[in-house]
Write a structure and sequence with these properties.
The chain is built from 15 helices and no strands. By secondary structure, the protein is mainly alpha-helical. The model has no long low-confidence stretch (mean pLDDT 80). The protein has 2 domains: 76 residues, no CATH class; 224 residues, MetI-like fold. Belongs to the binding-protein-dependent transport system permease family.
């Protein structure tokens, strides 16, 4: 197991390097807006733009810019600690800005994960056990509706209908005061609507996914053997069926958590939540390359680490898995 984890960590480092290269090419080498022009403001003089380019290090060649960026991230290449560079727009360190917004994104992700698991898993189990019933048809119909609705559309509809300030039926607290809430309870109250919107599509996906897996699992020979031994249906479903059917859900959950920890861009943008996703969205609009690279690397790091954690958990969930 230790050798396997070491190999995966080395592979993760290589993947992060490749992702950094791709991000740099997309936002720096390919045609895009000039960060120096965006920093200079309206109708800047060529002299001012050139001065800003020198200040930001944009006057250097593209390979030199990339090497300097990698050297800042990896201290053993000559940097003074891990540094994701400086924002072109605010001239502030990128890493502290990301770390400052990380708790907000973690809080948003945690609440949404708890909510969609609490809804999706029971609904999927019920639909699998009651296959073909009106409850199954209703649950899968609603799930398909939520899967089809984009997050930004569902968020705007939720604000229009349920926000406490502009909603037609104001039954949920708004989130505009999230940054002003001093207590954990106040911030949780401000995130009720974003949690519901973010969890809606995921709960529907997990319900349909678990339903399909559980239906197939309940047709296996060992399930019929368990029933023949006289075990109760509840024990057959929970102890034997769900345990086998939920293994792919663990993979899906790990990847989804990793993606959201890297920034739920649409949800944070629609609800104006000051998380990593909102930070990345603003950076893309302003062609702020260091911020874009920093947020992309952070998201990739979470995805790689969650993937590794899921692989390790497989050995505990399924005794047949060995590394």
């Amino acid at each position: 197991m230790a050798a396997y984890i070491a190999r995966r960590l080395l592979w993760a480092g290589f993947l992060l390097f490749v992702i950094s290269c791709i991000t740099f090419v997309i936002f720096s080498v390919l045609p895009a807006g000039d960060p120096a022009v965006a920093r200079a403001g309206r109708s800047p003089s060529p002299e001012l733009v050139e001065i800003i380019r020198v200040q930001l290090g944009l006057d250097k060649s593209k390979p030199e810019q990339f090497v300097n960026y990698i050297a800042d991230i990896l201290p053993f290449l000559g940097g003074n600690g891990i540094n994701f560079g400086f924002s072109y727009q605010t001239n502030t360190d990128v890493l502290p800005e990301i770390l400052e917004r990380l708790p907000v994104t973690i809080f948003l992700t945690t609440g949404a994960v708890i909510l969609w698991l609490a809804i999706g898993i029971p609904v999927g189990m019920l639909s699998a056990v009651k296959t073909g019933s009106w409850m199954d048809r209703l649950a899968m119909g609603v799930a398909l509706l939520f899967i089809s609705a984009p997050v930004y559309f569902l968020g705007l509809v939720a604000i229009f209908l349920f926000a406490d300030d502009i909603g037609r039926f104001p039954i949920l607290p708004g989130n505009s005061a999230y940054g002003d809430a001093d207590s954990l309870l106040g911030r949780a109250e401000a995130l009720i609507m974003p949690w519901c919107v973010l969890a809606a599509a995921f709960a529907a996906i997990y319900a349909r996914f678990l339903r399909g897996n559980l239906i197939d699992t309940l047709q296996e020979d060992y399930i019929r053997t368990a029933r023949a031994k006289g075990l109760s249906e509840r024990r057959v479903v929970f102890r034997h069926g769900v345990r086998a059917a939920i293994t792919p859900i663990v993979t899906l959950l790990g990847l989804d958590i990793g993606i959201l920890l890297g920034g739920a861009i649409l949800t944070e943008t629609v609800f104006n939540i000051p998380g990593i996703g909102r930070y990345a969205f603003n950076a893309i609009n302003l062609s702020d390359l260091p911020v874009i690279q920093g947020t992309v690397l952070f998201g990739a790091f979470f995805i790689v680490m969650m993937s590794l954690l899921v692989d390790i958990l497989y050995a505990f969930i399924d005794p047949r898995v060995r590394y």
